[in-house]
Amino acid sequence: MAKAPVLTPQADDFPRWYQDLITKAELADNGPVRGTMVIRPYGYGLWERMQQEMDARIKRAGAQNAYFPLFIPQSYLTKEAEHVEGFAPELAVVTHGGGKELDEPVVVRPTSETVVNASFAKWVQSYRDLPLLINQWANVVRWEMRPRVFLRTTEFLWQEGHTAHATYEEARDYAAHIHREVYADFMINVLGIDVVLGRKTAAERFAGAVNTLTLEGVMRDGKALQMGTSHELGTNFAKAFGTHYLSKDGAQELVWQTSWGSSTRMVGGLIMAHGDDQGLRVPPRLAPVQAVVLAIKDDPAVLEQVHAIGERLTAAGVRVRVDDRTDTPFGRRAVDWELKGVPVRIEVGPRDLENGTAVLARRIPGSKESVALSAVAGLVPDLLEEDQQRLLSESRIRRRTLTSEVTTVEEAAEAALAGGVARIPWATLGEEGEARLAEHSVSVRCLVAEDGSVPDRDDAPGNVALVARAY
Amino acid sequence: MAKAPVLTPQADDFPRWYQDLITKAELADNGPVRGTMVIRPYGYGLWERMQQEMDARIKRAGAQNAYFPLFIPQSYLTKEAEHVEGFAPELAVVTHGGGKELDEPVVVRPTSETVVNASFAKWVQSYRDLPLLINQWANVVRWEMRPRVFLRTTEFLWQEGHTAHATYEEARDYAAHIHREVYADFMINVLGIDVVLGRKTAAERFAGAVNTLTLEGVMRDGKALQMGTSHELGTNFAKAFGTHYLSKDGAQELVWQTSWGSSTRMVGGLIMAHGDDQGLRVPPRLAPVQAVVLAIKDDPAVLEQVHAIGERLTAAGVRVRVDDRTDTPFGRRAVDWELKGVPVRIEVGPRDLENGTAVLARRIPGSKESVALSAVAGLVPDLLEEDQQRLLSESRIRRRTLTSEVTTVEEAAEAALAGGVARIPWATLGEEGEARLAEHSVSVRCLVAEDGSVPDRDDAPGNVALVARAY
């Protein structure tokens, strides 16, 4: 009799596979309040690495971290009309504090444009204060009716950037810079996901933005995931909050703004882009643990050897864990590291030592071979780099394979419902076609220009709409 | 006529000096909801450095980061009787979510013992799962009637550790390990504050703890500040949430727990321990900017030189900022860096260049001298180390100077009200004396043993109570 698989196979039930993996790899649990999540240490380790890599890129883009309050007066939300319309249905409202009913209820931030602008209006006086480039790492709350861990949760963790500029052009260019140099660079080169860079249609724009740039990943089931967005806010919030500056010419001018965010949802994207029936596969550049060295048996020579290999790997710059918990059966530990998607496992037992070898198991290509003990530490860095490229290349091929060119709205809906991405000229689809797709829960993920670049308006000639079902 | 001071002098009005400094050094603002704060980039930079240093120590102590939800069912809080009694008056309550009234209101976490135990009860099965060592970086909310930025705010940022152990002794030792190796090591060796390590009396213990270890700093006005606490929770929360493990002998046993926290309040402590009438003084090991190189004038040779010095300092491992904003008057920039407490300023103007020198201004001793351009970068690392020691030594001397030995409750109250710390035998003071002190808003900050160590019970012979007013 064949052994029961650890996870529901993807082909049988992708959503169940996803939930199984999150539980078995100890990434997260549901919290006691519906829609909230507990991020377990291994899941949080993935998020911490995302934070490190993103934070470095955000700082290179010139933004500084700050922190704005969790609680926002309800009246602030209403100052920008589209914004409140977009977020009102999702708000959590605090009505009691310190044992008393509050005079004015406060909302738990769903995003921080309003409270940030209240500060910007004070901080920005003259052109010398611009550009003002701020980022914050925080939790936000959007009440979720159909929660799914990491993808749609009532509370999630994210970074949100908020900037103010002297001109439209500067703001536009900065939103594009974040889109490319922070988000795309991180997602492609660290997460190994071949995201599409595009522009949202008016229907899909952020509430209060004049333009939203997006990065869309294609998951293994052919559905799309919005992995991050960068918005041009125009002067919408500046008008609502009176964020002015004194120009060089001595005139009072409104600032031009951007905001941009990416969240713990990226952990969900990582799982669904790279995971397989054996578990997660973590790209080496992201992996909190790049290599694990396992002692197969409780034997002094084996224990000495695993620690020696661990030290050599650390010296070679590899993030390594030594697993010498020999009171837990080796098979169970090996399956656990496989589930957790650690790229390289080095397994050492008494028999290996006799031969002067170790078993080197690679999670990403799924290979296993015997290598000389003396060579193993030296091999790993190159293998990790190879695996990083392999995941990206797989993601690229998957996206191409799952994408088809179509010419009618019906074909687009059909392709999306079959689990794929349809490309259709925006001139053919239009807002009317977009509305028809919505009846099938299919959406325009983004518009791209003919040459694959990001278009600077919705109706530029040659614009292509990418159509899919989405998480 | 003498120039008006930038800040209210400490001697005139310490609380106003504190508020002036926070505003002028651009550390934080009040948020729109009463009691909340906006942490501005420079203030947040201090907190980020605290996080980095603390996080490294927490990880060395074996704890892993995770994340638990912001929202806790109201019913959870009531499971541990003392805990709810302590926190109920400070809770913020969400009654509406997603446009509807909630069936059960949820509270915004004031601390996470309850929601953490709900997870621990699931995660801990056998002795193999212990010790379980978890930390989280998060925001918490405690409704504040008399808020003061960084010191007492409705929302603050902190880390909270939560651990579960197989035995009382292990839990006790781990709480003490965190107290010493994480908190004291960081506060003394990085913050440069000569904290007292002691034990809280029963009256001052954390709600739900069986023992609270504390670190008390003495501020420049003679008041004490609790800088961090580490609690033994006994089996109180384990009983309330059913957190059991199967022992090696096959018996179901309750786990023994600890929790420990430190917060953005440490930024307030840093200000009040080291700040003077010219502004903040940041200990070099903490400082986000250790040295700033200022161009006095917009002159090509000057600009070239400041950048060259900046590069040499970076190469020497110094966290450096080059200030070439010559469109802002030099004097204003110099005062600003002084206010912000950057330890070393290197000022370069055309006249300095002619002499082949730069002015080196040191914020901590308050000195200013001319040094050879070729020598300046090489000098800085040693000066920074000297300044670090100087701040700690000042803090040590201040604590001794402000501390007096007394023998009666009246003398203790008098010394505290005069702005100092009184040491009185606990056998003399007792709980009755403690209650009398409370009438004067004076409290027992902690108990220490005769030899200065941390006592293992309140009534150990020779225990001394440290009595002061506190923030």
UniProtKB/TrEMBL annotation, chains A, B:
Keywords for the protein's UniProt record, in alphabetical order: Aminoacyl-tRNA synthetase, ATP-binding, Cytoplasm, Ligase, Nucleotide-binding, Protein biosynthesis
SUPFAM superfamilies: Class II aaRS ABD-related, Class II aaRS and biotin synthetases
GO MF annotation list: ATP binding; proline-tRNA ligase activity
InterPro entries assigned to the protein according to its UniProt record, in alphabetical order: aa-tRNA-synt_IIb (IPR002314), aa-tRNA-synth_II (IPR006195), aa-tRNA-synth_II/BPL/LPL (IPR045864), Anticodon-bd (IPR004154), Anticodon-bd_dom_sf (IPR036621), Pro-tRNA-ligase_IIa (IPR002316), Pro-tRNA-ligase_IIa_arc-type (IPR004499), Pro-tRNA_ligase_II_C (IPR016061)
Claim: ATP-binding is one of the keywords in the record: yes
GO terms for biological process, alphabetical: prolyl-tRNA aminoacylation
Domain of life of the native organism: Bacteria
Location in or out of the cell: Cytoplasm
Broadest EC class assigned to this enzyme: ligase
Catalytic activity: tRNA(Pro) + L-proline + ATP = L-prolyl-tRNA(Pro) + AMP + diphosphate
The EC number(s) this enzyme carries: 6.1.1.15
Primary localisation category: cytoplasm
GO cellular component assignments: aminoacyl-tRNA synthetase multienzyme complex; cytoplasm
Pfam families, per the entry: HGTP_anticodon, tRNA-synt_2b
Domain named Aminoacyl-transfer RNA synthetases class-II family profile: residues: 34-283
HAMAP family: Pro_tRNA_synth_type3
Record text about domains: Consists of three domains: the N-terminal catalytic domain, the anticodon-binding domain and the C-terminal extension.
Family recorded in the similarity comment: Belongs to the class-II aminoacyl-tRNA synthetase family. ProS type 3 subfamily.
NCBIfam families, sorted: proS_fam_I
PANTHER family assigned to the protein according to its UniProt record, in alphabetical order: PROLINE--TRNA LIGASE, CHLOROPLASTIC_MITOCHONDRIAL, PROLYL-TRNA SYNTHETASE
The protein's assembly and partners: Homodimer.
This protein's name: Proline--tRNA ligase
Native source species: Streptomyces triticagri
Lineage, top ranks: Bacteria, Bacillati, Actinomycetota, Actinomycetes, Kitasatosporales
